[in-house]
Write a structure and sequence with these properties.
With 412 residues, the protein is of the alpha/beta class. The chain has two domains: 201 residues, Glycogen Phosphorylase B (Rossmann fold), CATH 3.40.50; 155 residues, Glycogen Phosphorylase B (Rossmann fold), CATH 3.40.50.2000. Helices cover 46% and strands 12% of the residues. It has a seven-stranded parallel sheet, with helices on both faces. It has a five-stranded parallel sheet with strand order 10-9-8-11-12, with helices on both faces.
């Protein structure tokens, strides 16, 4: 008998699409799946046949706000990042929690990331099991530090492990006041102590939606931690416009440049910089943005499935979000990562370490000259191309969604 599975997918498209892939697979196995996500993704979700419940937080609007731009401009300081995120989310918290509760009603299983430890609260309220979703390696280990705190590696295994505990505890302390009020007044549950939920998640089932080919499994992760591989969402109904097909046929493979939901302080200046860098490197480009701004050598496209587009590129330049990184690596072409914040520098470092692309170029260091140099490196180095082909073949052979479904079927 099928179960009702609720997936909390509050984030950018890179967070939503893996949940879509998992949801579609669970639906094929007879389960009813409901995604909680920004209204921006209503059509993307409903056209796959999944149920949808809207959340008030829109990540793109948050990033484009002055507060969001200030957050992006900050350095890799996890304390400042958590405080900044709290300042942005504070006006939305009450509505977000109320809509989360409404969207989870009737669930037999709740899947959620560690944000606010929502899975713990909903599991207690509904008296159903829950599982944690990680899109980046966020499970405590002594092998490496939390992606948000790379400097902890200098303190050795103890520092590495403590970095995870610190990030989890810090994020909980920031939102504890709002969530404890919600627990008492909305869920009818007692408030939790500062350490309460952190202890409760230590043995919860964890789905790591990334590949052990990219992140080798640490030996100190327990049997409750399942490295499934990436969850890849196909869009077979999408048809490429003739304009795009014509551009691809009209010359050598171009380079894709797009930074997802990330925005710089001056998007127009960044666009000019990108075009100038591509031309200095003697490359054609496919850019994400307004199609009306296309040039003869620069085709600008709206949302286009990465699984179709990336394999047709000479290289992919992106921000290093987990979803985009997975798509770029799976495509078998080299990548240049220009990270902004959060886990993006971590994925940028992994791409470079695996030889799939040159040294990352952080967004705050973007200049036409620097980008042109990296573009030459990513397109002219045959070592990057060969490493990308090998890694792409390995990732394509994995069945991350199938592995995750097997784990969840055991759970329910």
């Amino acid at each position: 008998m099928g179960r009702t599975v609720v997936i909390f997918a509050a984030g950018s498209r890179g967070d939503v699409q893996p949940c879509l892939a998992l949801g579609r697979a669970l639906t094929r196995e007879g389960h009813s799946v409901r995604l909680l996500a920004s209204t921006r993704y209503r059509r993307l979700i409903t056209e796959t046949g999944l149920r949808f419940h809207p959340l008030p937080a829109d990540p793109s609007e948050i990033i484009e706000s002055p507060e969001g731009q200030e957050l992006l401009a900050g350095r890799r300081n996890p304390v400042a990042f958590i405080r900044g995120l709290n300042r942005i989310m504070r006006p939305l918290f009450s509505r977000l929690l109320a809509e989360t509760q409404a969207g989870a009603e009737g669930a037999d299983l709740v899947l959620a990331p560690t944000f606010g430890l929502l899975g713990v609260h909903l599991s207690q309220y509904l008296r159903v099991p829950h599982a944690i979703i990680h899109f980046q390696p966020s499970q405590p280990t002594g092998v490496f530090p939390h992606p948000f705190t790379p400097a902890a590696r200098f303190l050795g295994p103890v520092g590495n492990r403590l970095s995870f505990e610190a990030v989890n505890l810090g994020s909980w302390l920031v939102c504890r006041q709002f969530i404890n009020t919600w627990r008492r007044e909305g869920l009818g549950l007692p408030a939790l102590s500062p350490l309460g939920p952190c202890r409760r998640v230590s043995q919860a089932p964890v789905l790591c939606a990334f590949s052990p080919t990219l992140v080798p499994r640490p030996p100190d992760w327990g049997p409750n931690v399942h490295m499934t591989g990436f969850w890849h969402h196909e869009q077979p109904w999408w048809k490429p416009p003739q304009r795009l097909l014509g551009f691809l046929d009209d010359g050598p493979p171009p380079v894709y440049v797009g930074f997802g939901s990330m925005k710089t302080g001056d998007p127009e200046a960044t666009d000019r910089l990108v075009r100038a860098a591509l031309r200095r490197a003697g490359l054609r480009g496919v850019l994400a943005g307004d199609p009306s701004t296309s040039d003869d050598d620069m085709l600008v496209v709206e949302e286009t499935p990465h699984s179709w587009l990336f394999p047709r590129m000479a290289a992919v330049v992106h921000h290093g979000g987990a979803g985009t990184t997975a798509s770029a690596l799976r495509s078998g072409v080299p990548s240049l990562v220009c990270p902004f914040f959060g886990d993006q520098p971590y994925w940028a470092d992994r791409v470079h370490s695996l030889g799939v692309g040159p040294k990352p170029l952080p967004s705050r260091q973007l200049t036409a000259s620097a980008l042109a140099g990296r573009l030459r490196a990513v397109t002219e180095d045959s070592g990057h191309a060969e490493a990308a082909r090998r890694l792409g073949r390995a990732l394509t052979a994995e069945d991350g969604v199938g592995h995750a479904c097997h784990v969840l079927n055991q759970l329910v």
